[in-house]
Here is the input.
Amino acid sequence: MYSIELQKSADTLIRDIFGVKKGESVVITADTLSSMPVVEAVAASAYAAGGIPMVCIMPTPEGFGEAADPELPVEPLSGALVNADVWIEFNYTGLLYSTPFIRAEAQNKKIRYMDLQGYDEELMIRTVGKLDIVPLKAFMNKN
Here is the structure.
């Protein structure tokens, strides 16, 4: 239904917002309630940009942040994130402040992270695909 607009949105996210370069690792996390068309479009964009995408799909935890840890693959996920160049989170139940997030934040100073928790196709198209990137870049680069 949204495939053309969704792919454009994913390209904007990868190319214009994250600036993914050839050889960079792009970890995309999702859970079983995430929008898989969004996840797949972003992974395809990362690959087309020369990045090396890795999609991590896990069961949707009941808790948020560290409360989710007992239901997460904490060690493998932490290992991926502490070594990633880019991490895009599409989890329905967020990983923000979970142990893997805390470890990535503490140990990986190069990581570029965005929490797009619960994003579906419509939200991705409306908030990323229709974004005027020029003023956003000016804002992001303002000291």
Q: What stands out?
A: The chain has a mean pLDDT of 94. The chain has six helices and four strands. The CA atoms of residues 12 and 131 lie 9 Å apart.
